[in-house]
Amino acid sequence: MTYGPGSLGQAGEAGVLREVFAALGDPVSPDVLVGPGDDTALLRVRRGAVLATTDTMVRGRDWLDEWSSATDVGIKVVTQNLADLASMGGVGTGLLVSLVADPGLPLAWARELTAAIGGAAGRSGVPVLGGDLSSAPSGVVMVSVTALGELGDGVTRPVLRAGARAGDLLAVSGQLGRSGTGWLLLRQGVLSARSDPEAVALEHHRRPVTDLQRGPEAARAGATAMLDVSDGLVRDADRLARASLVRLELDDDALRSMATALVPAADLADAVTQVLSGGEEHELLATFPPGCVPDGWTVIGRTADADAVDADARQGPGVWLDGDKLDPAQGGWDHFGG
Amino acid sequence: MTYGPGSLGQAGEAGVLREVFAALGDPVSPDVLVGPGDDTALLRVRRGAVLATTDTMVRGRDWLDEWSSATDVGIKVVTQNLADLASMGGVGTGLLVSLVADPGLPLAWARELTAAIGGAAGRSGVPVLGGDLSSAPSGVVMVSVTALGELGDGVTRPVLRAGARAGDLLAVSGQLGRSGTGWLLLRQGVLSARSDPEAVALEHHRRPVTDLQRGPEAARAGATAMLDVSDGLVRDADRLARASLVRLELDDDALRSMATALVPAADLADAVTQVLSGGEEHELLATFPPGCVPDGWTVIGRTADADAVDADARQGPGVWLDGDKLDPAQGGWDHFGG
């Protein structure tokens, strides 16, 4: 089989490794004892344990080429992974990058992707340790990142989803609903912003950037539970509530004021929906004892005792708003749309 | 969109996580400080550094459903990753598993896959730390594993590709050509073995199993360079030769006797070709100082000084057989068929 000029297939594996993976840059950290080019990487671990997570983006499911550039995809896949580390109170120490692609994919697209991944990782001080390259059937492009990390300075244990206690405050590290609103705009054919809120929404959907320091900061401040908002506030808060066996009561006013900031990128009703259910926000959601919420976090609710521990019970752990228990299946992103 | 009964799409994300990822089993290692179900895993690291590698299998490229069961795929993807760790002198300490699949994929297939991954990992004493689930366009099924590890007992430093010295012996941990011969048989429509050599070849192609202890054993014995044979002997030996700036001279008699063991699964000429170029063998290839080759390894060549360090020169580093320099592009597997 032959492939067109400038495609991965024409360059061959060695050419792709040389031209595309080189764009990831050489790891500069002294903790990378063995970097790309051997069978595995070897990374120094300073604190006795390593955090590990993985996230994948698939063309046609997680992005559309009409809406997102290779740079957008590269930045987003790095943020997705590093936000997972941050939500444990961790910081990144290394990435592995896998590209699985149709050999007809333009080399230029792949090079832009890996340059963006290398750039985003580098800005966060995280070296790329290595990767893998596989060919895929026609049309398929998939990028998968594994992030390794350690607990941040002064963080003595990971912050889990379980751990919230009755009386804690629920807070978020930044504005919610941006990515969801950006996605709504793209679905409406708005590819270029006509207002500042549209610009913010489109940018955060295409290439979300989270302040990763917020994770270790929350851990040091005494966060009792934490995760990052990847599948929507209600769905992710419900996970935290069920893991902690508590009831989370959202504050209508706080959420409404977040929604207001999104107007006119969306009308208020849609903006509220996106604050509640927009996925891929990658801001951190955490519970704190009263008086412990760090500056810059927004309190959006509180924790109460679940009346029963049966996760399916009407009165059991879950997320509540204005006296109603919210159904996570009605507000969030399900990868298999069940 | 609706999906058929028994598909991933019908089960929905929570159902898939419950029914498919549960088959991976709970990690039983005391070193798993945080296991599946949180934003990241947390794994204890006892020796100050972690090995990390990743490998992906894609339906239609790395396997065909007509030839390989879900169990085959699960075993193979685990071996691929753990052999990479072994080839550094390491042992596995944890796996992350990503499944990226068409929502129309039968749950039963996915469950068989993850059960096989959990089983293969468990037999090697390696816990599954977590994973990721993503949907993909119609027809796509891809499984990606990241393996973490540490240097084995008594191994003080990783064995790299660079490090072979003139005068070393080149040895392999097991029989080569089995997987390649199995692939030839499948291409010829032979799905069931008619002789013991065919059974060995088909089995090793579908579900290769490598003695992972051979890696740390080689490291302790003083191996100067090592990798696993994933893309074919000539291609992988060439990588070792170039990284070490040496010339590897293969021993015709040793290779011919390996080929003979494959007859009648292949005729002798095809068997020689598969010994030289068959990929996915996952046996370990290493150089040792004379007198240091461990029992059970087969010496298949020796190392000589490269006459020049220019990698492109006729007399530079590379692989030689019977006075001829072998072209790695002519003997091995290129993921992008360039």
UniProtKB/TrEMBL annotation, chains A, B:
<feature type="binding site">
    <location>
        <position position="62"/>
    </location>
    <ligand>
        <name>substrate</name>
    </ligand>
</feature>
<keyword id="KW-0460">Magnesium</keyword>
<feature type="domain" description="PurM-like C-terminal">
    <location>
        <begin position="165"/>
        <end position="262"/>
    </location>
</feature>
<feature type="binding site">
    <location>
        <position position="228"/>
    </location>
    <ligand>
        <name>Mg(2+) 3</name>
    </ligand>
</feature>
<dbReference type="InterPro" id="IPR006283">
    <property type="entry name" value="ThiL-like"/>
</dbReference>
<feature type="binding site">
    <location>
        <position position="84"/>
    </location>
    <ligand>
        <name>Mg(2+) 2</name>
    </ligand>
</feature>
<dbReference type="InterPro" id="IPR036921">
    <property type="entry name" value="PurM-like_N_sf"/>
</dbReference>
<comment type="pathway">
    <text>Cofactor biosynthesis; thiamine diphosphate biosynthesis; thiamine diphosphate from thiamine phosphate: step 1/1.</text>
</comment>
<feature type="binding site">
    <location>
        <position position="230"/>
    </location>
    <ligand>
        <name>ATP</name>
    </ligand>
</feature>
<keyword id="KW-0808">Transferase</keyword>
<feature type="binding site">
    <location>
        <position position="132"/>
    </location>
    <ligand>
        <name>Mg(2+) 1</name>
    </ligand>
</feature>
<feature type="domain" description="PurM-like N-terminal">
    <location>
        <begin position="37"/>
        <end position="150"/>
    </location>
</feature>
<dbReference type="InterPro" id="IPR010918">
    <property type="entry name" value="PurM-like_C_dom"/>
</dbReference>
<protein>
    <recommendedName>
        <fullName>Thiamine-monophosphate kinase</fullName>
        <ecNumber>2.7.4.16</ecNumber>
    </recommendedName>
</protein>
<feature type="binding site">
    <location>
        <position position="231"/>
    </location>
    <ligand>
        <name>Mg(2+) 5</name>
    </ligand>
</feature>
<feature type="binding site">
    <location>
        <position position="161"/>
    </location>
    <ligand>
        <name>ATP</name>
    </ligand>
</feature>
<feature type="binding site">
    <location>
        <position position="55"/>
    </location>
    <ligand>
        <name>Mg(2+) 1</name>
    </ligand>
</feature>
<feature type="binding site">
    <location>
        <position position="54"/>
    </location>
    <ligand>
        <name>Mg(2+) 1</name>
    </ligand>
</feature>
<feature type="binding site">
    <location>
        <position position="280"/>
    </location>
    <ligand>
        <name>substrate</name>
    </ligand>
</feature>
<dbReference type="GO" id="GO:0009228">
    <property type="term" value="P:thiamine biosynthetic process"/>
</dbReference>
<feature type="binding site">
    <location>
        <begin position="131"/>
        <end position="132"/>
    </location>
    <ligand>
        <name>ATP</name>
    </ligand>
</feature>
<dbReference type="GO" id="GO:0000287">
    <property type="term" value="F:magnesium ion binding"/>
</dbReference>
<feature type="binding site">
    <location>
        <position position="39"/>
    </location>
    <ligand>
        <name>Mg(2+) 4</name>
    </ligand>
</feature>
<feature type="binding site">
    <location>
        <position position="84"/>
    </location>
    <ligand>
        <name>Mg(2+) 3</name>
    </ligand>
</feature>
<dbReference type="InterPro" id="IPR016188">
    <property type="entry name" value="PurM-like_N"/>
</dbReference>
<keyword id="KW-0479">Metal-binding</keyword>
<keyword id="KW-0418">Kinase</keyword>
<feature type="binding site">
    <location>
        <position position="84"/>
    </location>
    <ligand>
        <name>Mg(2+) 4</name>
    </ligand>
</feature>
<keyword id="KW-0784">Thiamine biosynthesis</keyword>
<comment type="function">
    <text>Catalyzes the ATP-dependent phosphorylation of thiamine-monophosphate (TMP) to form thiamine-pyrophosphate (TPP), the active form of vitamin B1.</text>
</comment>
<feature type="binding site">
    <location>
        <position position="39"/>
    </location>
    <ligand>
        <name>Mg(2+) 3</name>
    </ligand>
</feature>
<feature type="binding site">
    <location>
        <position position="53"/>
    </location>
    <ligand>
        <name>Mg(2+) 4</name>
    </ligand>
</feature>
<keyword id="KW-0547">Nucleotide-binding</keyword>
<dbReference type="GO" id="GO:0009229">
    <property type="term" value="P:thiamine diphosphate biosynthetic process"/>
</dbReference>
<dbReference type="Pfam" id="PF02769">
    <property type="entry name" value="AIRS_C"/>
</dbReference>
<comment type="similarity">
    <text>Belongs to the thiamine-monophosphate kinase family.</text>
</comment>
<dbReference type="Pfam" id="PF00586">
    <property type="entry name" value="AIRS"/>
</dbReference>
<feature type="binding site">
    <location>
        <position position="55"/>
    </location>
    <ligand>
        <name>Mg(2+) 2</name>
    </ligand>
</feature>
<dbReference type="GO" id="GO:0005524">
    <property type="term" value="F:ATP binding"/>
</dbReference>
<dbReference type="InterPro" id="IPR036676">
    <property type="entry name" value="PurM-like_C_sf"/>
</dbReference>
<feature type="binding site">
    <location>
        <position position="333"/>
    </location>
    <ligand>
        <name>substrate</name>
    </ligand>
</feature>
<dbReference type="GO" id="GO:0009030">
    <property type="term" value="F:thiamine-phosphate kinase activity"/>
</dbReference>
